[in-house]
Amino acid sequence: MESPDARNVVQLDAFKPRLSLSVANAKITHGGFDGPGYDNCSGYGSRVASLGSDALSAYETLDPPPHYDFYTKTEVFGRQRRFRPSLYQLHNDPKDSSPPIYEETNAEPIRGEDSSEEDEEEQKEPPSEPTRFGWIHGVMIRCMLNIWGVILYLRLPWITAQAGIGLTWVIILLSSCITGITGLSTSAIATNGKVKKGGTYFLISRSLGPELGGSIGLIFAFANAVAVAMHTVGFAETVTELMYEHGAVMVDRINDIRIIGIITVTCLLGISLAGMSWESKAQILFFLVIMVSFASFIVGTIIPASPEKQAKGFFSYKADIFATNFVPGWRGPDGSFFGMFSIFFPSATGILAGANISGDLKNPAVAIPKGTLMAIFWTTISYLIISATIGACVVRDASGLLNDTLLSNSNCGDISCQYGWDFTECIANETCLYGISNYYQSIGLVSAFAPLITAGIFGATLSSALACLVSAPKVFECLCKDKLYPFIGIFGKGYGKNEEPLRGYLLTYVIAACFILIAELNTIAPIISNFFLCSYALINFSCFHASITNSPGWRPSFKFYSKWLSLLGAVICVVLMFLLTWWAALIAFGVVFLLLGYTVYKKPEVNWGSSVQASSYNRALSQCAGLNHVEDHVKNYRPQCLVLTGPPSSRPALVDLISCLTKDLSLMICGNVVTASPSAHAQAGPPQSVAQEASSERHVTWLNKRKVRSFYRGVVAAELRTGANMLLQGAGLGRIKPNVLLMGFKTNFSSDTPQAAHDYISILHDAFDLRYGVCLLRMKEGLDVSQSPQSHVNAGFDGGPEAINTISPPSHFQTTNPPFVPVEAEPQRSTGFQKAQGKKTIDVYWLSDDGGLTLLLPYLLSRRKRWARCKVRVFVGGDADTREEQKQEVIALIKKFRLGFHDVEVLPDVYQSPQPESVHRFEKMLDRFRLDTNPKQDCDSGSERQQEEPWRITEQDLERNRAKSLRQIRLNEVLKDYSREAALIVITMPVGMKGACPNTLYLAWLDFLSRDLRPPVLLVRGNQENVLTFYCQ
Predict the structure, then answer these.
(1) What's the CA gap between 715 and 726, in Å, rounded?
(2) pLDDT tens across 321-375, in order?
(3) What is the DSSP letter of 356?
(4) For the CA atoms of 257, 263, 266, 270, what is the dihedral angle to 10 degrees?
(5) Is 415 exposed, middle or buried (0-12, 13-18, 19+ CB in 10 A)?
(6) How many CB atoms lie within 10 A of CB 939?
(7) Among 30, 471, 917, 1017, which one is least packed by beta carbons within 10 Å?
(8) Are 616 and 643 in contact (CB under 8 A)?
(9) What is the rounded CA–CA span in Å between residue 430 and residue 270?
(10) How confident is the model over 946-972, as a mean pLDDT?
(11) Do residues 874 and 905 touch, judged by C-beta distance below 8 A?
(12) CB neighbours (10 Å) of residue 176?
């Protein structure tokens, strides 16, 4: 077989979208081109900017390849942002210049190709970039400095003396286990999308939602503010000790700590206000000082001890000292494992220092996991080494006196006796001033050069205080900008290129200053332990919850985490909170639940795609699927209502009444049929504006603002009946589907087209065919309150002046494109059903047995607060001779149903003949629908006309249904006599037999039965299946 001629082969490369030279040489960022010459889909007029006016070939399409700009929310300086073409642009004819109502290219203003010279001048110089940090400088060093705080230098030797080396290691490893698990969870959350400002609050709130995120954001910001006080008190305590050693005293020890602490935190505030660049430089300096102090400590443990140091309990590395200090030696009120843990744990809480400045990191998704985990690893190693070395070199108690050497005749049993020293006297008298149980500065004692340890203490305490002083305002700033709580918005204002929260700094300063006045490190540390544990518990739970919901949006790039490990970490944190300080744990959870309750009540208008939303969907889906295994039972019957409201805001009374029936009880779906003529479908497809009206979110918003628990479903159909049929057959999910159809009464059928009346009643027949119950609501003032003649309202089931297909669809999209105008919120009109009904009556005319729906609906209404004071009266038809017996039978039956209705009245006059005037009015109403019975016409022509016009009423139809017609006329007279002052009339709706009763005659029955009545009338007909039972199974 010969190969085809190369000249006849289609070269597809020739039809590729060509890049301009500027694009080909453009810098590539984020997987896309930065050049401005590529096809720009930002407006309707310029469909493909780079292709000029040439016709589109088969391969030069509007479909662009994937690009970073299509997914980002931010602009890149120096080039115009590109937008993905909308479905309308891809799908519709380019000659159609008029987009549908909803068509918006983006929230950004539409940009054309041309730009003014002023704009070009303004964009010559790029905006100055704020300071950004990498993972080492921004996260690892910052976290290590925050972890290496006051506890390391001033309390770790004391904790080692109390708990022993073994349990101290357990405390360190348990703390590191909690922080390590939290670090893994933080890494997973931080890599599941772009992280912005707000640190821990941002991570939790965007994962668990505003309810828990907001509460923990406040707690975490407060805990960081208190941590500033803790580290500052540690610094002031060291300075005070140095002053006392040199005989310098200002007031007394406590007040000296307070004075030094206030001065120190004021200086730190000045550094913070100077900006992040100055703060980061200070952190580097502190880090170097701490590393030098560590080196001094390690060297000091190796150097042989001098007599002065031996007198204070330091003997260099000794196996006996290590063995003695390996076991616990509890002392004092805090002498317990959890007492020591509560004091040590704040030293491990600096792991979120890097995450808290997430907005100042170059790449938070990379920096937070790497920097946080590395910081946890190295600080854990350092804690283990220091606790082991100090425990192997220094005894628990020493006097510090050079005269306490061991005498030859002394009876000494202490470990120091083996090395020529006798501290038994001070041990017995509890007056020892040195040793790791008594001297907080033991690390300085051991070091080769003590001033370096002092400098290390200064560096550790000041760096930790500075990190917390920066973290708290940045977390609080993000919380304030989200506007979840009142009265805190003023602290969300940022200043400068870095948007520094200066007001937040001042608030943190005030809180820290208040806690510095406590001036006792062992009192402040347990306070913040519970707050940090609470934060860690929620971070771990956030990771677990996001994983367990199986949301497609949970795709963290950090894979080294386990949802069950995160859950374990959350449980451990909660347990430890109560084991440490149960009352502080209760306070922490009380604050969380108080703020949670407030946020749930206020329902802030934010949508962050949280795992709580995903979990709600999972639960709903699971419960719906579970109902498939549950058989229906009459005891569990609920009226699940499909309400043909049109736009819900157009018939608020209908919505309010049915909401009273279904709220917190059963399903309610507001259905809207938007009609469009078949010609529009054939010529241009369904008009987009009509389709958008059917599915508009403003209807759901209106229902939510009215606090109506209802779903909304809109459909587009050629006519009302077709759309209603779509809703009847397609609404609902599984067993959660409607079983009762509710409509407004068509009061204008006498003036409307006969076909409209015929179609209206056909909807009722369709509902009966599908085994629906049917209810019609009629009010004297009408239901439709819509004012605009252009609103998409189906007048097929109300008293509006329009016919059924009131929407005249646009012939084509040939009109000019109007500027986009935002849709205004629908007005919330009040109705009588929103008010308390007072001491009126609900009159129930149970004239035919429909399965009990006529009784059940008034019972459900009477359970509502608005209707609770109304008395329910039940009217039934009967004979005058057996009136009392029939009344007792009905009362007994209702009593078995346990409905609580006691007022029953038998009406024998419902079977009497109506007044002639009423009959005459009824016959006059039917005149326009009657078939002309001209004797000159043959029977065949009359039959053909009735087939063409099925709404026609013949004399045979009238005669066949004469008894039913007279009964409806008489019932109207009875209703006027007995129910003039009722709050609501509920009456069993008659049923017109298909084929025997024309639709217009049936509608005339319903109209005459309910006309000229002041109270609202609800015509009810069940599907002839029991909805009430007096059996228990």
Answers:
(1) 8
(2) 999 999 998 888 878 888 888 888 877 877 877 777 776 777 777 888 888 889 9
(3) G
(4) -130
(5) buried
(6) 7
(7) 917
(8) no
(9) 44
(10) 86
(11) yes
(12) 21
